[in-house]
Write a structure and sequence with these properties.
Elements lengths: L1 H17 L3 H31 L1 H5 L10 H16 L13 H19 L1 H4 L11 H16 L4 E5 L12 H11 L9 E6 L5 E10 L5 H4 L21 E10 L10
Antiparallel strand pairs: 1-4, 2-3, 3-4
The structure holds heme C.
């Protein structure tokens, strides 16, 4: 009897030891959030470098701009390093660490988009060429999604989206409304684990982007007027939430590997 009691007791202890506690789960989710945030931030760096070189790209008097994929990527890496303290390289695209693979693949996708645009960028006599952060960002996301495959995606979205390709899904629309709501902390991303209908799990994450003075010439007032791209100005004001970068990564144990 005593032996049986002891067996039951140790069985109970074992059971409690192996029930994953809420705390353990929270740590994992924080890790996924960090990874998704890095992917979003690398796209933010891509967008920033295009914005910083907008006058050069738009210069009608200059032919060869020297703005090659390599030059662009070296500036993106530097911007990302300043923002996150992390070094990324194109070689990471073949890493077995899923986070490095994501970042490396994103870098390669970004470089390919600018390399493919060389003819347009170097056109003499043409000012505005539609090589702007939003368009480069969308094309980069498409390439990245294709290269990464199932369980991954990256996109720019907004409630007041211009391009149907950037249309928010149900979760994205819900998050965007939260970001726009009063009291939501500025620059704070948000994410959660989602279970798909087939039982697979993914981590979804969104990082808000805000209207800065430079955005107003296309997205600002007067609402309804045409901007330089031929699109319609939305009438946003400085500081308002313009949209978000949306990231999806598979929820899997291998994805919990740390970025070194
Ligand atoms: C030169 C005009 C121009 C400027 C300046 C500009 N945008 Fe845009 N923006 C566009 C266009 C055009 C699109 C649609 C892009 C596409 O085809 O995907 C767009 C799309 C977006 C989207 C994706 C959602 C959508 O509407 O389809 C976001 C987010 C965005 N812009 C944010 C910004 C922010 C933030 C700034 C300033 C830092 C900015 N934009 C500056 C023209 C501009």
């Amino acid at each position: 009897m005593a032996v049986l009691k002891r067996l039951i007791f140790s069985g109970l202890i074992l059971a409690f030891t192996f029930i994953p506690s809420a705390q353990v789960f929270a740590v994992e989710e924080r890790d996924l959030e960090k990874q998704a945030d890095l992917i979003a931030k690398l796209l933010v760096s891509c967008r920033a470098i295009i914005a910083q070189n907008q006058d050069l790209i738009n210069d009608p008097d200059k032919g060869d701009k020297g703005f090659t994929g390599d030059i662009y990527i070296s500036k993106v890496k530097e911007h990302f390093k300043n923002a996150t303290d992390l070094e990324v390289s194109e070689n990471d695209a073949s890493s077995s660490d899923p986070v490095k693979r994501s970042l490396g693949t994103l870098l390669c996708s970004a470089k390919a988009v600018i390399n493919e645009s060389q003819k347009v960028i170097n056109m003499k006599g043409k000012g505005f060429k539609k090589v702007i952060p939003a368009v480069v960002g969308r094309r980069t996301g498409f390439k990245y999604n294709k290269a990464m495959g199932v369980g991954y995606y990256l996109k720019q979205t907004s409630i007041r989206y211009r391009n149907p390709a950037n249309h928010p899904d149900v979760l994205e629309a819900k998050y965007l409304k939260e970001f726009e709501g009063p009291g939501y902390p500025k620059d704070k991303g948000k994410g959660e684990v989602i279970t798909n209908s087939d039982g697979s799990k993914v981590y979804r994450y969104m990082l808000p982007v805000y209207i800065k003075p430079a955005c107003l010439k296309c997205h600002g007032e007067p609402k309804g007027e045409k901007d330089i791209t031929g699109g319609i100005k939305e009438g946003y004001k400085e500081g308002e939430v313009r949209g978000a970068i949306s990231v999806m990564i598979p929820y899997s144990p291998t994805n919990l590997a740390q970025v070194k």
